[in-house]
TrEMBL record:
Residues 1-24 form the signal peptide. It comes from Methylobacterium dankookense. The keyword Isomerase applies. Keywords: Isomerase, Signal. Coiled coil: none annotated. GO terms for molecular function: isomerase activity. It holds the Pfam family Kelch_KLHDC2_KLHL20_DRC7. InterPro entries: Kelch-typ_b-propeller, Kelch_1. This is N-acetylneuraminate epimerase. Its EC number is 5.1.3.24.
């Protein structure tokens, strides 16, 4: 590893030591949880106040599915204004924000919608400067970074734009060095980590790239590559690691679960996902990872599967 990467990761490693080292204490195992009331795929998921919100659907469903993480039960909430799939989402300030996605088939959208659980209502917000779908979104220091994705023609766009919910405004940041879609994007210890994905929407062109963004310098740096190149994976932060779960290629779905430790710039293999799938998402809550819905086969299938990784 280049010395400059070692130096940059040192500060990240120090911050990570403050996180609960969940992966270091007990082996993690999978268990089933309550099935969603309706099947979904190509969703985005955001967690807020002990609930996970499953948003969008490849097959056109608009109803918001809400999972109570403590109670292991589902409810339904206000539908989206129109069908969306391959959108991106994050929670901040008591609201869920949904960015872009494909609408009217495969048209990349710049629309931004905010959902307020208190009123069970959706409202429009300032649109993204660059319409796109199948990128990633992560909250860092009160602002939401929307990274990568594809345009209406399927070509990748390296855009990295930062939304400020308090001001309802956008700023631009350093572009993603490896343009890609269907990637995993997470915030961790003051950095943004972008992992895996595919070239121009082609699941037979999966990538193993790991790239880390430092907002202090507005620069990206390469990290150790993902051991199993894949796209359409779910991801979440657990303790001191980013987990990349499942995914697909053109011929199969993946059960692989691999965790990235920025302290050592290294990967570790964890227990495989019981139901290999893609087009789903994950949230971390109280030391557990919840994986929600998704397609067990490559392409446009869907399911209501929920599986939990826990000590």
């Amino acid at each position: 590893m280049p010395n400059r990467l070692s130096n940059r990761l040192a500060a990240l490693a120090a911050a990570c030591l403050l996180a609960a080292p969940v992966l270091a204490h007990e082996p993690l195992r999978w268990r089933p949880a309550a099935t969603a009331p309706a099947p979904r795929s190509e969703v985005t998921v955001a967690a807020l106040d002990g609930r996970a919100y499953v948003i969008g659907d490849y097959n056109g469903a608009t109803e918001l599915l809400v999972y109570d993480l403590a109670g292991d039960r589902w409810s339904r909430a206000a539908p989206l204004p129109h069908p969306i799939h391959h959108a991106m989402a994050a929670a901040q300030g008591g609201r869920i924000y949904v960015f872009g996605g494909y609408v009217k088939g495969w048209t990349a959208s710049g629309e931004v919608l905010a959902y307020d659980p208190a009123t069970d209502a959706w409202t429009p917000r300032a649109p993204m400067p660059t319409p796109r779908a199948a990128g990633g979104a992560a909250l860092l220091d009160g602002r939401i970074h929307v990274v990568g994705g594809s345009t209406s023609g399927g070509a990748n766009d390296p855009a990295h734009e930062v939304y400020d919910p308090a001001r309802d405004s956008w700023a631009t940041a350093a572009k993603l060095p490896t343009p890609r879609d269907h990637l995993a994007v997470q915030a961790m210890a003051g950095r943004i980590v972008a992992i895996g994905g595919r070239r121009d929407g082609d699941p037979d062109r999966n990538l193993a790239a790991t790239e880390i963004y430092d907002p202090a310098t507005d620069r990206w740096q390469a990290g150790a590559p993902l051991p199993t190149a894949r796209s359409g994976a779910a991801s979440a932060v657990l303790g001191d690691a980013v987990l990349v779960i499942g995914g697909e290629s053109g011929s199969r779905t993946f059960a692989e679960v691999e965790s990235y430790d920025p302290r050592t710039d290294s990967w570790r293999t964890l227990a495989k996902l019981p139901t290999p799938r893609h087009g789903f998402d994950a949230v971390a809550w109280e030391g557990r990872i919840y994986t929600l819905t998704g397609s067990p086969r490559p392409g446009g299938d869907r399911s209501g599967t929920v599986e939990v990784l826990a000590p």
